[in-house]
Amino acid sequence: MEQNQQKLRKAVSDVSKEIGRYYNDLELERQLGAIEEVEQAECQCCGIKEDCTTVYITEVQECYCGKWVCGLCSEAVKERVGRSPKVAMQDALNSHRDFCQEYNATTRLNPQLSITLSMREIAKRSLENRKSKGLSIKKLSRTSSYP
C-alpha cells in the first residue's frame, strides 16, 4: 500500500511539473505575442524616417490630424500651438511643414544662400519696423565702383 502511495505521489508530482511547464510556455507565448512588429514611418514635415510600432504610429496620427510627425517636429508644432491658442493644429502643422520644406530646399543644399536670404529678411523687417514707427529712412547708394 505504501508503495502505491509513493507511485501516486510521484505521478501527481510529474503531472504538476508538466502543468507548470505548460503554463510557463503559455505565458512566454503571450509575452512574445505582445511584441509588435516595427515599421518605418516618415515624418510628414521634415521627411525623417523612424522605426516605430503600429500602435505608436496610430497614437501620433491621432494627435496630429492623421499625419505622422517625428519627435522634433511634434515639439515644434506643439510650441507653435501653445504660443497662440487661436492657431489650429492643422495650421501649425502646415506652417511647420512649409518651414521644413523651405529649409530643406535652401539651407541644406546651399548654406551661403540661406545666410543671404536670412539677412535679407532681417533687413526687410528692420525697414518695416522703422516705417511703422515713423522714423526717417536714409537711402544708401553706391557713389562709385572700383574694378
TrEMBL record:
One Pfam family per UniProt: DUF1677
This protein's name: DUF1677 family protein
Provenance organism: Glycine max
Name of encoding gene: LOC100776718
